[in-house]
Design a protein that fits this description.
Layout: E1 4-9, E2 19-28, E3 39-40, E4 49-50, E5 52-53, E6 67-75
Antiparallel strand pairs: 1-2, 2-6, 3-4, 5-6
Length: 76
Amino acid sequence: LPVQSAITHPRPGAAVPAGELTVKGYAWSGGGREVVRVDVSLDGGRTWRVARLAGERPALGRAWAWALWELQAPVA
């Protein structure tokens, strides 16, 4: 399966103040394959930023669960 991802913070439609924004979520893949990267766009796909994967890395071939990710980004 291709990597699937969801944003858990901020909530859809939430008003966020200008400055530094923390975006959080989770991602998963299929077949025991590890999620190695999550890209996030804050401008409708014009530019992309690489999120930091959180938590422990699974052993090779043991990635049957989701991975948490987090991105710190400036917003106008």
